[in-house]
Design a protein that fits this description.
By secondary structure, the chain is an alpha/beta fold. Helices cover about 30% and strands about 25% of the residues. The protein has a six-stranded mixed β-sheet. The chain has a six-stranded mixed β-sheet with strand order 8-9-10-11-14-15, with helices on one face. The protein has a two-stranded antiparallel sheet with strand order 6-7. Strand 3 and strand 4 form a beta hairpin. Helix 1 packs parallel to helix 3.
Amino acid sequence: MIRAALIQLRSGRDMARNVAEAAALIREAAAQGADFITTPEMTNILEPDRPRLRSLARPEAEDASVAAFSALARELGLWLNIGSLALRGDAEKLVNRSLLFAPDGSIAARYDKIHLFDVDLPTGESLRESHAYAGGAEAVLVETPKGPIGLTICYDMRFAHLYRMLAQAGAKLFTVPSAFTVPTGQAHWHVLLRARAIETGSFVLAAAQGGTHESGRQTYGHSLIVSPWGEVLAEAGIEPGIVIADIDLAQADVARARIPSLLHDRAVTLTALKAGSAIVT
């Protein structure tokens, strides 16, 4: 049994303050018995000014937030997924990186967001994540004493094949830390997360940013814990806080036995026909 906690944040432009606020909520969740805790995308900073963001970002080995969360995981003796941090990568671009800390404070796994959010919204807001960040190239499944976990981030949830591949490799729980926009959140947040849980027979833990940030950006909130049958076990509103649920990964096996679709993939070929053309036999 896992007591899972999602930390909902409203990260701002001050890294030290963001880390302190996240740490306080992580401590509170641990006091409530949580032994697996996950935070949202961009836990350390939500900064729209790209030059300023680049000036503040540090490589993983030099980043103060990485050191702080490592020490916190070790102090509390729990599994801590920092949903993502803005870090300086090997090249000139940043990386949007999820880190899983083991109870001894070591980094058990790291995942760089594969699918980057480049979009023009109906509200007039234009987001170009690829201008600042380099996309990752590797899906990450990590075996832990808690069970096999697939690490993903936000926009990844729209790419069902990623989750199917991870589930077929053994993942029974997915982390989906996010900073979803309000329009897309209202339309798709619950549907997509429940779909990823149902089609893979897996638990989904989606910690989110929520509310109006100091930069003026608005995020959807509604951190969710979803069961392998698609039930919402716990949900936040838009304010910073904690949601907790007890989850049993054996329920993933139960769901997959009821609907064994992960075993039923078939190789297919595509035939493209033009409407009105003659079919030759």
